[in-house]
Design brief:
The chain is an alpha/beta fold. It has helices at 12-19, 36-44, 57-63, 66-70, 84-90, 107-112, 137-143, 146-157, 162-175, 181-192, 204-214, 217-231, 245-260, 276-281; strands at residues 26-29, 49-54, 74-78, 96-102, 232-242, 264-266, 289-295. The termini are far apart. The structure holds S-adenosylmethionine (SAM).
Length: 299
């Protein structure tokens, strides 16, 4: 049985090269998602193993049919990469030869999850894992103070019209609570205007900011990176794909400081980005950046 995902994996060939796949190695894919990268790694060499985790239970369930194809070469684990250390202990994960982290959300979450997209009218939730957080986008939009909301939009969305947008949100929620993605998108449109010819919807950054805040995405990456380095065997590779500058900055800074401390070597001096051909085939790959580092022996 095939697993069905709408997600198109980005930079697949580049990931395979970056991981330096050779026989009998074990890899950890900490963002299984639609399992596209997991499958590509398993297909690259019939002797390699992949331990794939995701904190979205639906992603894990969707990947389960792959166990029939790959048998014990694949292990699926539900959990957050921010808790990698605990997961290593609990599931007896050995040191691995490569780790892949493809940050952000999958197309499955955007199309089927609640609250991720203003293109579908769904309840304002935005949690990638309901098991990990209680606070959702509805709570943030309706109950955060105006100052907190402005801070969220500035920090995580780099939204420079935050003041006007928040004033509209506060005004609207005094009349009645904001329940759905379409309601929120309309409020943003009213605050900043909507130009039909514009390539991006005016609510794009607002949705991104609230999603990052609700899921603590940056905090999770910060917690993950040092533990990932420890989870690698000597000469193991850490491959991270980010989709916006806030994520990429965390990865870049971590790689630099690890290299300065003599614990790793940066393989990609410049980030690897999608080819022209990939950009045509998969336009949502356009902001992806891949960075690779290799762990130095005995650190
Ligand atoms: C861009 S998708 C990965 C797509 C995947 N590489 C593929 O080829 O199909 C990102 C995935 O990371 C997962 N994710 C995000 N934050 C996570 C976290 N803290 N722990 C585990 N998984 C996380 C999301 O649930 C989502 O499924």
């Amino acid at each position: 049985m095939e697993s069905v995902s709408q997600h198109k994996s980005v930079l697949v060939q580049e990931v395979l090269e970056a991981l330096n796949i050779t026989p009998n190695k074990t890899f950890l894919d900490v963002t299984c998602g639609g399992a596209g990268h997991t499958r590509a790694i398993l297909d690259a060499d019939p002797t390699v193993k992949v331990i794939a985790l995701d904190w979205d239970m639906k992603a894990i369930e969707r990947a389960e049919p792959l166990l029939e194809i790959y048998g014990d070469r694949l292990q699926l684990i539900w959990g957050s990469f921010a808790h990698l250390y605990k997961l290593q202990k609990k599931h007896k994960i050995p040191k691995v030869d490569g780790i892949l982290a493809d940050f952000g959300t999958s197309q499955d979450q955007i199309h089927e999850g609640e609250g991720f997209s203003f293109k579908h009218d769904t309840p304002l939730d935005m949690r990638m894992s309901v098991g990990h957080y209680k606070t959702n986008a509805y709570h943030v939009v309706n109950f955060a103070t105006a100052e907190e909301l402005r801070e969220i939009l500035w920090t995580y969305g780099e939204e420079n019209r935050a003041k006007d947008i928040v004033a509209r949100i506060v005004d609207a929620r005094q009349k009645s609570r904001i329940h759905t993605t379409k309601e929120l998108a309309l409020i943003v449109e009213q605050a900043v205007g909507f130009r039909r010819e514009s390539r991006t919807h005016p609510a794009t950054k607002v949705f991104q900011a609230i999603r990052i805040f609700v899921n603590k995405e940056l905090e999770n990456i910060e917690a993950f990176l040092p533990v990932a380095l420890n989870a690698l065997a000597d000469n193991g590779r850490l491959v991270c794909i980010s989709f916006h500058s806030l994520e990429d900055r965390l990865v870049k800074e971590f790689y630099k400081s690890t290299e300065r401390e003599g614990r790793g070597r940066i393989i990609s001096q410049r980030p690897v980005t999608p080819s022209e051909e990939e950009l045509i085939r998969n336009p949502s790959s356009r902001s992806s950046k891949l960075r690779v580092m290799e762990k130095k022996k005995a650190c």
